[in-house]
Amino acid sequence: MTETIFTRDILQGKVAFVTGGGTGITGGIARAMAEHGAKLAITSRKTENLEPMKKLIEDGGGECLAVAADVRDYEAVESAIAQTVEHFGKIDIVVNGAAGNFLCAADELSANGFGTVVDIDTKGTFNVCRASFEELKRSKGQILNISATLHYLATPMQIHVSAAKAGVDAITRNLSVEWGRYGIRVNGIAPGPIEDTEGMKRLLPEPLKDKITKKIPLGRFGRIKDIENAALFLTSDAAGYINGVTLVVDGGQWLLGTSLA
What we know:
Layout: E1 15-19, H1 24-35, E2 39-44, H2 51-59, E3 64-68, H3 74-88, E4 93-96, H4 111-139, E5 142-146, H5 159-179, E6 185-191, H6 198-203, H7 206-213, H8 224-234, E7 246-249
Parallel strand pairs: 1-2, 1-4, 2-3, 4-5, 5-6, 6-7
Helix pairs in contact: 1-8, 3-4, 4-5
């Protein structure tokens, strides 16, 4: 069990449904939520991507349901939501973390490549939000969408991801207004460069990492733990009057316009 600055029961009695919950940032969020009292349902396209995290959560004394579903497929998402409710009885928190990414110049990017990322990130986020609406309405629950800072200025080689995450931010704002009347809070987190993710290791060459580190006001790259802490805060009662916010967690990096490509 990891160290924490929060009380261990901050999410006690909550049920969280986390897409992309087997690995990376959202895997960390899922584990952290379990360690702070929540029961977890994690989903990914392939069950084998979920089993290690399920075991880690259960070995730590938590409860975890692994459900395979492609967020681009609305019926598959509906089925995953239904299985979660059948297993745990409700859903209180939805975390949209399923995402796709690769480096590609705009003039070399295929329409299919662009569309695939938008379908996973933007359409997938909407699909999960829409499919979980009735359950969140019933529980007066909340949604946490994982975004990015790539589209705040401009990031070369990332037009597809930038467009997709801009759509995610729009979903966060719109749903916070439309669904607030039902007691549903909708917020987001926009991580900056997080060094202990597979994507950052793959996308960012070491020489460029050193250059960017010097331009981050806090003088370091983020870690998954930083995003976990932000997620625990936003989904806890401590943030009970926060709605429609996408919280930037990047050490101030985007304010200097430092490109990651």
